[in-house]
Design goal:
The chain is an alpha+beta fold. The protein is built from 13 helices and seven strands.
């Protein structure tokens, strides 16, 4: 992936810079990539092709609750695969670390998000919750007993992450439901390996609905900031999940959130993140806040082109890379002897 090496690399292990500086950098990130015309709008879900390729929104949510918005940060779009991160967190909260680890796993497949071969190559194990097989297996684990009960648990949780009620985009839902034979095949395959206990087609229907929930870049930033804030929504003060669940979720995002480009992303940007085919990306800086971006044109791996560039720029200029450190000069006992 392409990032700009000319952005001054700030190192910060503590907090974000002051309000004005963050505000200015968010506006800069938007202005810098607004005219970038690379990438292609997804069309395998027919209705997604109607998106305007010029849409571009950026939002930083501080873990203290401050919000910085630029461009189309309040234009709604469907959350798609980004829902996988938050549904995973809800399922971990309900079932605990070990059972979800055993059932779904945390290792990257190195293959596209909707790969069937990845399931076959791993004895029917879905591998991780950020590919479709693992996300479908995760949605199947939601508490609630019935599809309606699971949906209730899911929407209550995602609303709490966003701090507002999220609605389903019915047109996108129906467009995907009519064309998601591949996800239905993945669910049947998982069933054949005994990895799903619920009705596989009902689970795919729930998964399709969760992907069609409408969010904005602002919502993504707030949802991410909740993961950055030990599970407490910085706007509403509501505890959504535990701090341990946030840690587990962010670890999974670091290794698998950007599809088969996750290694490259972590190397260049140094933040756990998740992207979706409608053009959203959320990147989380633990303890500091989160970046939500939206722009429909995608690269071949399915990650938003402008979103990646803007996030990279903000990670460098705000000092968010979790692997960066600077020399810490201390009086070491015996130093210099
Ligand atoms: N609903 C989409 C699918 O299952 C989500 C994919 C994505 O955002 N990568 O194909």
């Amino acid at each position: 992936m392409q990032t700009d090496d000319d952005t001054e690399q700030v190192v910060s292990t503590g907090s974000l810079p002051g309000w004005d500086r963050v505000e200015q950098l968010v506006q800069d990130a938007h202005a810098r990539y607004r005219d970038l015309a690379d990438g292609t709008v997804a069309d395998y879900i027919p209705e997604l092709a109607a998106a305007d390729p010029a849409w571009f929104g950026v939002c930083v949510a501080e873990s203290g609750g401050g919000l910085h918005l630029a461009g189309d940060a309040e234009v709604p779009f469907t959350i798609q695969s980004i829902s996988k991160a938050f549904v995973y967190a809800l399922v971990c909260e309900a079932l605990g670390h070990r059972p979800v680890l055993d059932r779904v796993g945390v290792n990257n497949t190195g293959l596209p998000f909707n790969s069937v071969i990845a399931v076959e190559l791993n004895d029917g194990h879905p591998m991780n919750p950020m590919v479709n097989a693992g996300a479908i297996a995760t949605t199947a684990l939601l508490p609630g007993g019935t599809p309606a009960g699971r949906w209730e648990h899911l929407t209550r949780g995602l609303d709490a992450f966003a701090g507002r009620r999220l609605e389903v985009d019915d047109v996108v839902y129906r467009s995907e439901a009519a064309t998601n034979q591949r996800n239905r095949a993945i669910a049947r395959l998982l069933e054949s390996y005994g990895r799903i206990e619920a009705d596989p087609l009902a689970v795919v229907d729930l998964y399709t609905r969760q992907c069609a929930l409408r969010v904005t870049a602002r919502d993504l930033a707030v949802m991410g900031a909740t993961l950055a804030d030990g599970g407490v929504n910085p706007l509403t003060g509501e505890r959504v999940v535990s701090a341990q669940v946030c840690r587990d979720t962010l670890a999974v995002l670091a290794s698998t959130g950007m599809y088969e480009r996750s290694g490259e992303w972590l190397f260049e940007i140094g933040l756990p993140a998740k992207s979706g085919v409608a053009g959203g990306i959320v990147a989380v800086a633990p303890g500091k806040g989160a970046i939500g971006t939206f722009s429909p044109p995608l690269d071949p791996a399915g990650n938003s082109v402008r979103g990646q560039r803007a996030t990279a720029h903000l990670s460098r200029s705000l000092g968010l890379n979790v692997f960066a450190s600077s020399v810490h000069v201390t009086e070491r006992a015996g130093a210099g002897r």
